[in-house]
Automatic annotation (TrEMBL):
Keywords per UniProt: Autophagy, Lipoprotein, Membrane
Family note: Belongs to the ATG8 family.
UniProt KW Cytoplasm keyword: no
Location in or out of the cell: Membrane
Source organism of the structure: Oikopleura dioica
Source organism superkingdom: Eukaryota
InterPro entries: Atg8-like, Ubiquitin-like_domsf
Protein name: Oidioi.mRNA.OKI2018_I69.chr1.g3888.t1.cds
Keyword Glycoprotein annotated: no
Length: 85
């Protein structure tokens, strides 16, 4: 299943289903934080990611998260000096 298909399936979940899922994950991994990332609707400057769901340590800094995100960008033409936000 491609990440686009997985994202469509994830987006079809209700807020309550997402909350139950994140609560289950937090109970199983208390030292980790589930994060869901996606591009904004009109943003074509940032390429698609290989994954959109991440389970990261609770003490992970934003700069470290950005490094992880940059490693998961599909497009080999992506200019790493370009801002992601």
């Amino acid at each position: 299943m491609s990440s686009t298909d997985e994202l469509a399936k994830f987006n079809s979940l209700t807020k309550e289903e997402r909350l139950m899922s994140s609560t289950r994950i937090r109970a199983k991994y208390p030292q980790k934080v589930p994060i869901v990332l996606h591009r904004s609707a009109g943003n074509t400057a940032v390429p698609e990611l290989n994954r959109f769901r991440y389970l990261v340590p609770s003490d992970l800094r934003v700069s470290e998260l950005i490094t992880v995100i940059r490693r998961n960008i599909k497009d080999p033409k992506f200019d790493e000096s370009k801002a992601l936000f």
